[in-house]
Amino acid sequence: MEKLVKLWVNYYPIFLQGLVGTLWLAAITVLAGTVLGMLIALMRMSRLKTLNVISQVYTDVLRGTPILLQLYFFWLALPKIVPFEMSDTSCIVVALIINSSSYISEIIRAGIAAVDKGQWEAARSLGLSETNVMMKVIMPQAIKNILPALGNQFVMMVKETSLASVFFVGELTTSYKSVQSMTFLSIQPLIIVGVIYLVVTTVLSKLVGVFERRMRVSD
User: How far apart are CA 161 and CA 99, in angstroms?
Assistant: First the structure.
C-alpha cells in the first residue's frame, strides 16, 4: 500500500493526463459516432434497397470483427489512402468513431422504431412530408429512448479506448506504460490505472442511471 501511495504522489499528473485523454477520446468518439450513426440508421431505414444493403454490410462488418483488428487496419491503411498526412492518433480516432457509429446506428434505429407507429400515421394525415414527420414528430420522442443508451455507449468507450494504448495514443493505459518504463514497476501502476477506470466508469454509470430514471419520470 505504501508503494501505491508513493507512486500516486510522484506520478499522479501522468495518470490524470491519461484520464483526460481517455475522456476526450470517448467523448469525441461518441459525438462524431452519433452524427455518422444517424446517417447509417437513416440509410438502414430507407426505402432505397441500395442504401439499405450498404448500411447493413457496414454494421455487420464493424460489429462482426474485433475492434483491435479495425484499429490496426485504419492505422495502416488510412495514411496510404488519404491525400494528406495523418498522425497515429488521428487514424485511431477515426477508427474508434467508425466502430462506434455502427453500434450507435442500431441504438438510433431502435429508438426510432420504439415510437408508436400511430405517430407516423397521425403526422402524415396532417399532410407533413416524411422528412418533417421524422424531424418534428418522431425524433423528439425517440431522443428519450436514445440518450440513456448513448450514455451507456460513452461508458463503454471509456473502457474500449484502452486499446489505443497499443499505438501509444495519449490515454490512461498509455500512462501506465509510461510510468512502468520510468519506475520498472508493473503491478502497482496497473492497480492505480485499474482503480481509476473503476471509479470513473462507476460514477458515469450511476449518472446515466439517474438520468435514465428522470427521463422515465418525465414520461
Answer: 11
